[in-house]
# Entry
Amino acid sequence: MKFPTHIVMRETVKKLWPEIDWIGNPTLREQVTQTWIKALEHSPLQSEDLNQIPFTLLVPNCPITFMEHKRCVVHIARDSAKAMQNFMGRPLPVDLDVVIAGAILADVGKLLEYELGPDGKSRQSDAERHCVIRLQELPSRWNAECRTPSVTSSPPTPPKATSSSAQRRRSSCITRTSWRFCLSRIQRT
# Structure
């Protein structure tokens, strides 16, 4: 029996990210799931590749896979947010759902930035060809929480080039490279 593609993709994301179930808000959970589905649909990589490719191309022969790193980051983010709730929750409320969603979505753009070369090793992909997810398709709450330009505005507004630490912090809330990388490609299309 062959299952419809959307069911297979949903199960693929659930298998990659059991932590998505930690997101209590059903709307946000669905937005995160849909973002990963779209990234996988447009990626030159297969879902299995994410358990094989290194989490960075900057470290030669990096022994940590993309998914090992990503899932570890999600666990650390959740544990840190819980500690913040315990110690500073009254004056500084933390939305655990947003923290988990942000950690799961960080680096989702690497699915469009990486590919496997003929030798089977990870490399930077042809960015013009693969960065096709439109800003309007990404969850708007993801950016609202990070105080970045709204992804629902049309046309999207690029972050201003600046060396200020505040701008770098806002950009890194999503991911330092993926957000700028995809934004620059989307604005050219």
About this structure: Residues 128-138, 140-181, 183-189 have pLDDT under 50 and may be disordered. The beta strands are 114-116, 122-124. The chain has one domain: 5-188. The CA atoms of residues 98 and 164 lie 25 Å apart.
